[in-house]
Design a protein that fits this description.
Layout lengths: L2 H14 L4 H19 L6 H8 L3 H8 L2 H31 L6 H13 L11 H10 L4 H24 L5 H19 L1 H9 L9 H26 L1
Helix pairs in contact: 2-3, 2-5, 4-5, 5-6, 5-8, 6-8, 6-11, 8-9, 9-11
């Protein structure tokens, strides 16, 4: 075979070779994320996803097996780096505190900083707030399934850390505090429309990651301590 023929054969093989699996998978995830944001999970068909991604249905079935698994993969792509950064920060605070548990404020910083200052933390939230809002309101129990897969182990780690930071507290008060903390975090993620609505005719405050984190931590730490101390105050 001549050098020209060899070059032609290599070019032909390269042109006809299937695209890398990662590229195909990412195209599917990107298309699904875009359509889920626009239309919701239930209203988005696999046919529309494959059309936008430029793949066939077999590719979706190969990479994700089902639409529900595809939804989970879209969400986990956003949640995984957030949760990893949370645990890294908590590990650092625990190591720095030595034999003593980290303060409640430091535990809350570890939980919230990847959300409030995700760029500094190396986390790209992108459409995370909109996706979480969609998931929370979607019928079919998707939020509960995702929570059990993605968030439950992280929630337990932080529940244990908060319990150590507030020794002698009622476990039910800790659970309520975490429940309300997650709610406040979700409200923060929806901050542009909510703050604009609450500001009325006044201009909504500009987003400052450092100030936002400080306000959230102060608010949530105060809430935890109020729950823990209310029974003692009533005696």
């Amino acid at each position: 075979m001549t050098e020209t023929n060899v070059s032609s054969a290599i070019s032909s093989a390269t042109a006809s070779a299937p695209e890398p699996a990662k590229e195909t998978k990412d195209r599917i995830l990107d298309a699904a994320e875009s359509l889920f944001i626009a239309n919701g999970f239930q209203a988005t068909s696999l046919r529309r996803i494959t059309a936008m991604a430029g793949v066939n249905l077999a590719a979706v079935n190969y990479h994700f097996q089902s639409k529900e698994q595809l939804i989970m993969a879209v969400m986990m792509r956003k949640l995984d780096p957030v949760n990893r950064q949370r645990l890294t920060l908590l590990d650092g605070f625990e190591a720095a505190s030595g034999s003593r548990p980290p303060s409640l404020e430091n535990v809350l910083v570890a939980f919230l900083q990847p959300i409030t200052d995700h760029q500094a933390a190396g986390v790209d939230l992108g459409s995370f707030p909109v996706l979480m809002g969609r998931l929370y309101s979607e019928p079919g129990g998707l939020f509960q399934k995702l929570f059990s897969i993605a968030f439950a182990p992280v929630a337990k780690r932080f529940k244990d850390a908060i319990t150590r930071a507030l020794p002698g507290s009622d476990p039910l008060d800790i659970l309520w505090g975490m429940h309300l903390t997650v709610g406040a975090m979700a409200h923060y993620l929806a901050r542009p429309p909510v703050l604009t609505l609450l500001a009325g005719r006044d201009a909504a405050p500009a987003h400052d990651p450092v100030e936002s984190l400080d306000r959230l931590v102060a608010y949530m730490a105060g809430g935890f301590r109020a729950l823990v101390s209310r029974k003692a105050d009533s005696l």
